[in-house]
Write a structure and sequence with these properties.
3-stranded antiparallel sheet; single chain; 12 helices; 12 strands; globular; alpha/beta; binds pyridoxal-5'-phosphate; 7-stranded mixed sheet
Length: about 350
């Protein structure tokens, strides 16, 4: 078994951390207030196994009933549970290549086959393809490219796919649109979201799925009784109740994303159109791995994935404006060019 390799989490030091798509801004102040209001009883007792208040609130966010909402210990847990709930022992799991590198590990853990569907030459939707998998992980916007496939194409695929489609929308809040309506309309589709990115709560571990009650029921049946802790439930509730704060952070990040993309294009880098909180970039005048190494020597962590096709790219998380200024300076120095914007 080859384990999933998470991005590096350096313990201390003056590091500019642009490697794991965390949010550079703090969560809603309501989250810290909720933390300070917690009583000993809320950790002495077991939490609500069904996360009812949180599911109800998430339901109201997406104009649906709590019977259509499942909450997990991060969206990674939700994805893992989907591989247990929706795949037969002799079934397979489909996903695009490249997409989120956790999926192959989940298929291996579940001991089922993988159907990897290569994306087009520019990482776009690969035209027509057949998939007879039981479960398809469709990442939109995609990771690590940040690109969002046309919604019409996604809807048509979901409509004809015979198994369950999990639309992994970890970065949806940073995009132009989302597919929640498809999940609420079609019985074989779940949209999976996380509080780790747009809500600035990667350390909390909270994610959720929205879709048909039958699919949600299946996840509820197989989960650990208390899969989401009492503190997580309480703080997640505070976060999703303050979407204005989340939206303001997302807007700032999107503006910084535009600025960084222009600066990198200014030094000749190829930058994919991103609808996420990161950029997928092919450097010019320096190799991707070398760029990753040289930046880490000056305390800037980005992500480089080995591989024939993806190895010539790097993924850069959008940080604060100050962090991105420092990155732009460092890149300009390495490229021997001044960045224009
Ligand atoms: C596409 C995708 N899905 C899911 C996740 C996991 O998010 P969580 O922190 O909710 O487990 C990530 C995290 O990087 C991701 O990139």
């Amino acid at each position: 078994l080859t384990a999933y390799v998470p991005g590096e989490q350096p313990g201390s030091g003056e590091i500019i951390k642009l490697n794991t798509n965390e949010n550079p801004y703090p969560p809603s102040p309501e989250v810290m207030k909720a933390l300070s209001r917690l009583k000993a009883g809320s950790v002495r007792l077991y939490p609500d196994p069904e996360c009812k208040r949180l599911r109800r609130r998430i339901g109201s966010l997406h104009a649906c009933d709590m019977a259509r909402v499942f909450v997990g210990n991060g969206s990674d847990e939700v994805l893992a549970l989907c591989t247990r709930a929706f795949v037969e022992n002799d079934g397979s799991i489909g996903f695009f290549q490249p997409s989120y590198s956790l999926y192959p590990a989940l298929a291996d853990i579940r001991e089922v086959r993988q159907q990897r569907v290569p994306l087009g030459p520019g990482f776009e939707w690969p035209g027509s393809f057949d998939s007879n998998s039981s479960l398809f992980f469709l990442t939109r916007p995609n990771a690590p490219t940040g690109m969002a496939y046309p919604k019409k194409t996604v809807r048509a695929f979901c409509g004809k796919f015979e198994g369950v489609v999990v639309i992994d929308e970890a970065y949806a809040e940073f995009g132009r649109d989302h597919c929640m309506d498809i999940a609420l309309e079609l019985d074989n589709v779940l949209a999976v979201r996380t509080l780790s990115k747009s809500f600035s709560l990667a350390g909390l571990r909270a994610g959720y799925a929205v879709g048909a009650p039958l699919l949600i029921d299946a996840l509820l049946k197989i989960k650990d009784s208390y899969n989401v802790g009492a503190v997580s439930q309480e703080l997640a509730l505070a976060a999703v109740s303050d979407t204005d704060h989340m939206r303001a952070n997302v807007d700032r990040i999107m503006a910084t994303r535009t600025r960084l993309a222009a600066a990198l294009r200014g030094v000749g880098y190829l930058v994919c159109a991103s609808e996420a909180n990161f950029l997928w970039v092919k450097p010019a005048g320096i190799g991707a791995k070398e760029l990753f190494e040289r930046l880490s020597q000056v305390g800037i962590l980005i992500r480089h994935f080995p591989g024939k096709r993806i190895g010539s790219y790097v993924r850069i998380t959008i940080g604060t404006d100050l962090e991105i200024d420092k990155l732009i300076d460092a890149v300009a120095r390495l490229s021997g060019k001044r960045s224009t914007p």
